[in-house]
Amino acid sequence: MLYFAYGSNLNYFQMKKRCKDSIFLKKINLNNFKLTFRSKYRAADIESKKNSIVPGALFEISKIDEKKLDVYEDYPTLYKKYYFTYYGKKVMTYTMVKKSIFMFPTKKYLSIVNQGYKDCNLDQKFLKQALKNS
Q1: For 108, phi and psi rounded to 5 degrees?
Q2: 32: domain CATH number?
Q3: Is residue 85 part of a domain?
């Protein structure tokens, strides 16, 4: 199955630890969405926004990996699954159930996401933009 990561799961080390079968395929953009941080966990989330993009990574994951991600993402309580089509293929990602106000991420979480942006060669300007939401 195809999985789109946009937060801490961009971090190669973390993703491999969580999902041992995962294979990074390439970086892609999710159109008409923006990145934000929210909830008591101050974690990454995406929300609809016209003419905006969320850079991320496309991974191939196994069913076992998906079950592990479901646990990590506290599915379906904190995050729900969101599906979109990328060149005719179905892709799964997670989006928060409750769209609470922006919460600045913790230093530790942000450093994991930052490393993920480097690992996947993503444009840091989108991360900086998301952090200005406060």
Answers
A1: -60, -50
A2: 3.10.490.10
A3: yes
Amino acid, res. 115: Q
Q: What angle do CA 114, 105, 25 make, to 5 degrees?
A: 35
Domain count, the chain: 1
Where does the pLDDT of residue 134 fall: very low under 50, low under 70, confident under 90, or very high at 90 and above? low
In a domain, 127, yes or no: no
Q: What is the pTM of this model?
A: 0.97
Task: Give the integer Cα–Cα distance in Å for 41 and 13.
Answer: 21
Range of the domain at 37: 2-122
Helix ranges restricted to H, 7-106: 12-18, 63-72
Judge contact between 25 and 58, C-beta under 8 A.
yes
Q: For the sheet with 23-38, list strands across it.
A: 23-38, 43-60, 2-5, 89-96, 79-86
Structure tokens belonging to residue 84: 């979109």
